[in-house]
């Protein structure tokens, strides 16, 4: 149960949660609109019930889906006004009955299904993970959503193999950097789109072929691999025409994984024309086309997988193992205090961020 009464991992709530008299702080989307609609409000502390723990949050991750929710363009979000946020790190300060695998004082990572923009959350014990000793709270909050998304796309539903050619759109973003880490760990040839000012950074992270996101991506890739060749895997969160271009770049047995539609939201508030433009430019594929082309198109929406903890826990455990071995390097661009939540959203809208942005109570 989230701190404001919303469900966690798809479990419906049966009524208001029990709370204590101490105050917690949360960042609320007060109405659909620009970042300034975000406001910090106080509420009574939630109390851990049976099977739950209470966490004092040290850092909370920001994701592009949060921006879409704030503009009213994310159908999976709770009705506005609401508190969003999928990932936090912090310290357990209260244990509910029936919880034996965790103790007060444990440093943990948690994935609430919304409600993470809070300095205190109550969540089921099955939805938290103990942090490695060497992991910082910032790294802990930067890991769950983007690395799970990348892992699910590339290693769970995918067949990532050594020396594959991988094209990652928005490669300097959170999911993009996570995908670079996973592709690098598997010895892949990596192509990544970003603005030219981020190309040096991408090379430092292991991307061999940074591409200018403002220019023709197909022409840039073909110039490297040859006009009659292509790539094996494309991760595309842009949508619209980009999906078509990505599909056409696939060579035999290649796979396009669609995991976002950033082109649907071109500004900082809701734009129906932008959404319609994106939808009209999205091509449909029939099974016959896919068979004849020997290609695959798959979709990933992590927000719809929170009810499948049986799928997510093993993947997250694998990611923590990779972190312990030094194969993953969560990158935090900036941390913003709660009072500057609007500035954090502006920073992400303006495409200034590299990797993750965090909110710190």
Describe the structure.
The chain is of the alpha/beta class and 361 residues long. 29% of the residues lie in helices and 26% in strands. The protein has helices at residues 64-70, 137-142, 144-156, 174-185, 199-205, 217-225, 241-248, 272-280, 287-293, 309-324, 341-349; strands spanning 19-29, 38-46, 52-62, 88-95, 107-110, 120-124, 128-130, 165-168, 189-194, 209-212, 231-236, 250-258, 296-299, 332-337, 356-360. Strands 3, 4, 5, 6, 7, 14 and 15 form a seven-stranded mixed sheet that branches. Helix 5 (199-205) links the parallel strand 9 (189-194) and strand 10. Helix 3 (144-156) packs across helix 10. The chain is globular, with a radius of gyration of 20 Å. Residues 1-17 have low confidence and may be disordered.
Blueprint (SSEs and pairs):
Elements: E1 19-29, E2 38-46, E3 52-62, H1 64-70, E4 88-95, E5 107-110, E6 120-124, E7 128-130, H2 137-142, H3 144-156, E8 165-168, H4 174-185, E9 189-194, H5 199-205, E10 209-212, H6 217-225, E11 231-236, H7 241-248, E12 250-258, H8 272-280, H9 287-293, E13 296-299, H10 309-324, E14 332-337, H11 341-349, E15 356-360
Parallel strand pairs: 8-9, 8-11, 9-10, 11-12, 12-13, 14-15
Antiparallel strand pairs: 1-2, 3-4, 3-6, 3-15, 4-5, 5-7
* Largest sheet: number of strands, sense, barrel closure: 7 strands, mixed
Helix run count = 11
Instruction: Identify the overall geometry.
Output: globular
Oligomer: single chain
Poorly predicted sequence stretches spanning 5 or more consecutive residues: 1-17
* Overall pLDDT: 90
């Amino acid at each position: 149960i989230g701190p404001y009464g919303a469900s966690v991992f798809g479990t419906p709530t049966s009524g208001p949660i029990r709370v204590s008299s101490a105050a917690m702080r949360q960042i609320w989307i007060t109405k659909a609109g620009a970042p300034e609609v975000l406001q910090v409000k106080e509420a009574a502390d939630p109390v851990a019930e049976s099977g739950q723990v209470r966490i004092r949050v040290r850092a909370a991750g920001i994701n592009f889906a949060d921006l879409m929710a704030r503009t009213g363009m994310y159908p999976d979000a709770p009705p506005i006004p609401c508190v969003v946020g999928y990932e936090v790190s912090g310290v357990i300060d209260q244990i509910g009955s029936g919880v034996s695998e965790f103790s007060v004082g444990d440093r943990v990572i948690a994935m609430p299904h919304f409600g993470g923009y809070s300095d205190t959350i109550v969540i089921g014990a099955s939805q938290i993970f103990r942090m490695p000793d060497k992991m910082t709270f910032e790294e802990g909050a930067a890991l769950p959503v983007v690395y799970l998304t990348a892992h699910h796309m590339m290693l769970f539903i995918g067949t990532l193999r050594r020396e594959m050619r991988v094209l990652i759109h928005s490669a300097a973003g959170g999911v993009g950097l996570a995908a670079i880490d996973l592709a690098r760990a598997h010895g892949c040839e990596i192509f990544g789109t970003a603005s030219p000012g981020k190309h040096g950074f991408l090379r430092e992270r292991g991307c061999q072929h940074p591409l200018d996101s403002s220019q023709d991506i197909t022409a840039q890739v073909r110039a490297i691999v040859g006009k009659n060749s292509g790539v094996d895997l494309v991760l595309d969160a842009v949508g619209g025409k980009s999906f078509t271009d990505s599909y056409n770049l696939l060579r035999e047995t290649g796979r396009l994984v669609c995991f976002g539609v950033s082109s649907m939201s071109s500004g900082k508030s809701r734009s129906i024309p932008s959404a319609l433009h994106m939808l009209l430019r999205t091509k449909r594929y029939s099974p016959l086309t896919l068979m004849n082309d020997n290609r695959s198109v798959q979709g990933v929406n992590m927000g719809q997988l929170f009810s499948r903890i049986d799928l997510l826990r093993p993947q997250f455990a694998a990611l923590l193992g990779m972190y312990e071995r030094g194969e993953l390097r969560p990158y935090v661009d900036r941390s913003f205090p709660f009072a500057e939540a609007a500035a954090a959203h502006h920073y992400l809208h303006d495409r200034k961020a590299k990797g993750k942005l965090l909110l710190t109570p």
